[in-house]
Amino acid sequence: MKRPRRIAVSLVVFVVGWWLLSLYNGRMFPSPVTVGSLIVEFVFEGDIDNQSALYHLWVTFGRVVLSTALALGIAVGIGIAMKANDGVARAFEAWLPVWMTPPDVVVILVVMVIVGFNSQAVVIAVTFAYTPFALVTIWQGLQEIDPGLIEMADSFEASRFEIWRQIYVPHLLSYIFSSLRNLFGMTWKVAVIAEVFGISNGVGSRVRFWFLQGNIAEVLAYAVLFIGVVLVIEYAILNPIQHRAFAWRRA
Amino acid sequence: MSESDDTTTNTETVDEATSDGSVIEFTDLKKSFANGDDTFSVFENLDFEITEGSFTSIMGPSGCGKSTLLNVISGLISPDHGEIRRDGTVVEPGEFFYSYVFQEPRLLDWLTIGENVRFALRAQEVPPEDQSGRIYRYLELVGLEDKIDSYPQQLSGGMRQRVGIARALAVDPEILFMDEPFSSLDEFTAKELRQDLLEIWKETGKTIIFVTHNSSEAVFLSDSILILDDNGDLFDQVSVGIPRPRTIGDEALLETESAMMERFFAHLNETDTDES
């Protein structure tokens, strides 16, 4: 089967399955039609807070992008410091497992207690929770660089700057990219959880609101919308970038 | 290049195309490494000379210090003592302008072939306006000018090694160091590349110092072969006077090789008996 057809078939199977579930219990499993019309309503006419669902998506999206960028930037910075200094490397290697261990919910709550229930808290919590995951990938990338390439560059007396520009950075780029995709998939979820805990805007805040009303259809509407946006970003933005940036790999 | 006026050296060269070079003499080279409280001597009392423009091989078993010697000559490692003279004048090891061809091609996979060569040119601060011309010229020399926009992973192992050679030559070194450049290729490709290397050498007139542990390769390629034993002693220096072009499997080459190897094994037996 060709790819578009495969995607179409699996979507149809998914929707039909969902619809069958809704026939069984419409209150617990609102039908795709109900959820679909809610999405249209929330997007074009607004939720009952008079804000379009797109506004909430946009707010969440902003937090996700910011914290992903911060996590990645900090990870690259620490990675470079680790590469440059053995002491730094040993310290972070020892502490990384500890840093990766606390449950996201604990991180979110502690940060919110310290920073307050606001947007910054979401960004800080997500950044803190996911920097170590990015760091693991970046550090692995820096260690996997072929020392022969550096020796080659030294034999031509290439400057440190050229070595970073032409060897370390391009080599790291594939690790940065795969880290970016992983992070993106994870940070969305945590950001929404953080919003559920007490932020007045963003997808999480609407999920909390409708959950407290006991309305599953509205919760699902936000979930579906959200998944749709994540998939669009994945397939329409990240995939093509990766395809172009790593053309040399398909050789 | 001027004719060597150093009468004390007995230059055992070679065929006419390369015999007018000046001479680089290495005297009493010693290199050892600290190993705990002991020092481990890689080589000592090494004396040899290399005619500029000639093709010299350094041969010996694995771990005999071939690569260390290469690094000392190139100035990457400083010797414990010893002297290098060019036409009688003392020079520092790092003074030679050299480039390296490694055992593996060591190309940057994310750059095209042309950009890989440019990397070396840029590192050597070749003016940007000269770079493209040089890239083309040297890729043409190794027969890869039509692959200039390909990526390394689109090329065969032999082609990649050719790019490595083009990159090393493009910076126009005085000495080209080649550290077992064909040992990771299949014999068929290696054979072809050896032939081509001789062509390239003839065309560019570079001084080549070639490390190998393959005796027939050394005999086929070289004007002169320095043979190190397990202890890093330079026990034999063979001059291969067979005129070029040489044919692989040629009687005279085989004879030179077997005589050389006979001496080598006799020497190994001697040192074994001495030690026991």
Summarize the structure.
Chain A is mostly helical and 251 residues long. Chain A is 82% helix and 0% strand. The relative contact order of chain A is 0.12.
The N- and C-terminal alpha carbons of chain A lie at a distance of 25 Å
Instruction: Kindly name the structural category of chain B.
Output: alpha/beta
Radius of gyration of chain B: 19 Å
Helical segment count of chain A: 10
Radius of gyration of chain A: 22 Å
Identify the overall geometry of chain A. globular
Q: Enumerate the spans of chain A where pLDDT stays under 50 for 5 or more consecutive residues.
A: none
Most extensive chain contact? A-B, 21 and 22 residues
Helix content of chain B: 25-40%
Written description of the protein model:
The complex is a heterodimer of chains A (251) and B (276). By secondary structure, chain A is mainly α. Chain A has helices at 3-24, 32-44, 53-84, 86-100, 104-115, 119-143, 147-155, 160-196, 203-212, 216-245. In chain A, 82% of the residues lie in helices and 0% in strands. Chain A is globular. The mean pLDDT of chain A is 90. By secondary structure, chain B is an alpha/beta fold. Chain B is built from seven helices and ten strands. Chain B has helices spanning 66-74, 113-123, 128-141, 157-170, 187-204, 215-221, 251-275, and strands spanning 23-35, 38-51, 55-59, 81-86, 89-91, 98-101, 175-179, 207-212, 224-228, 234-239. In chain B, strands 6-7-8-3-9-10 form a six-stranded mixed β-sheet, sandwiched between helices. A four-stranded antiparallel β-sheet of chain B has the order 2-1-4-5, with helices on one face. In chain B, strand 1 and strand 2 (38-51) form a beta hairpin. In chain B, helix 6 packs across helix 7 (251-275). At the A-B interface, helix 7 and helix 8 of A face helix 2 of B.
